Predict the 3D structure of the following.
Amino acid sequence: MSAPIRTCVGCRSRREQSTLSRYVRDDAGVVRASRTDAGRGAWICTNSSVCLDKAFSTRGFDRAFASRSSNKNTNLRNRLTMAK
Ligand SMILES: [Zn+2]
């Protein structure tokens, strides 16, 4: 049985889940580390502040938590279409 593989949303490398930390965004939009909280998770290399910074600067977190921002994108897309 092979270990589960996850992609770090910072450096985008695929690693064993045990070497990554899980982050979740709560209802208030606060991102925090948690392995047990419900909701969409994002995985970041454990103890890597570089990956954490990248996840914010490249909007990796936004992609990982896409359930909410996808609505925004849809609305923006509708507006752009109508503005023609
Ligand atoms: Zn990483």
Notes: Strands lie at 5-7, 14-16, 20-25, 31-33, 41-45. DSSP finds three helices and five strands in the chain. The CA atoms of residues 10 and 49 lie 9 Å apart. The chain has one domain: 5-82.
